[in-house]
Backbone:
């Protein structure tokens, strides 16, 4: 079986790449009054929960990180002891462990892409949010990955593998505003942030390109010879100083 497309190391690596987008995503919650509740749904290691707690200083603000993977958030649970405003919960994004209309803001980063049933997700998000609450979503656009050297047919097959096979909802980034509109959210905003990687090593670190290509060979989506030629072309471009790979990150917000 193909390995899932993230782990704690991967999340830590990409945090550095996405820091600017992450920081901007927090600013949508500037207007939440002291006493409000902010949730990072699908919080992974919990680092964004800690960052938001550092960003917003209200004594009575509440910051909740929710993730289905207890091991991911276990190492951050100590932070809730040092800052009583912070809490981590193990829970399913399709069954959020919070009461109706109790949340002022929900942030989701690279979560929607993993959800097979977005209807269930956005129904739950709408349920727990207060009227006037804001949802903020950061998503990777897997269909946008582009290489500027090598066999483009392999690159096309990589896009298809990631967006239609590997990632449960690989086209989520391009559907976010549609989802929000369909589920009754208003004041939708959308921004696209292109990221350019200039070394093959970075492409492997941040996008797991080497792992994805290996999986495609194992699944007979490309041949071993195609893999070797494609990787050789990327490495040659890297050695000669003209490697380029780009991907879009989408930041969408809306109000209930």
Residues:
């Amino acid at each position: 079986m193909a390995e899932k497309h993230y782990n704690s190391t991967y999340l830590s690596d990409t945090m550095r790449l996405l820091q600017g987008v992450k920081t901007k995503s927090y600013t949508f919650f500037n207007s939440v009054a002291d006493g409000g509740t902010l949730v990072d749904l699908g919080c992974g290691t919990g680092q964004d929960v800690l960052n938001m707690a550092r960003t917003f200083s209200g004594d009575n603000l509440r910051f909740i990180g929710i993730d289905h993977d207890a091991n991911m958030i276990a190492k951050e649970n100590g932070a809730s002891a040092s800052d009583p405003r912070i809490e981590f919960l193990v829970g399913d994004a399709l069954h959020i462990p919070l009461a109706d209309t109790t949340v002022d803001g929900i942030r989701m980063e690279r979560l929607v892409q993993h959800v097979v049933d977005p209807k269930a997700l956005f129904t739950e998000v709408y349920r727990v949010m207060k009227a006037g609450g804001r949802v903020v979503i950061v998503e990777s656009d897997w269909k946008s990955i582009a290489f500027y050297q090598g066999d483009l047919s392999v690159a096309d097959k990589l896009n298809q593998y990631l967006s239609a096979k590997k990632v449960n909802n690989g086209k989520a980034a391009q559907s976010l505003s549609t989802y929000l509109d369909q589920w009754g959210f208003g004041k939708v905003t959308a921004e696209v942030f292109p990221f350019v990687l200039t070394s093959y090593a970075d492409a492997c670190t941040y996008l797991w390109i080497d792992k994805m290509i290996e999986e495609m060979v194992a699944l007979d989506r490309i041949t071993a010879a195609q893999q070797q030629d494609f990787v050789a072309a990327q490495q040659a471009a890297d050695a000669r100083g003209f490697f380029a790979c780009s991907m879009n990150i989408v930041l969408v917000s809306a109000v209930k």
Q: What stands out?
A: The longest strand covers residues 129-147. The chain is about 40% helix and 25% strand. The two ends are 39 Å apart (CA to CA). The chain has a mean pLDDT of 91.
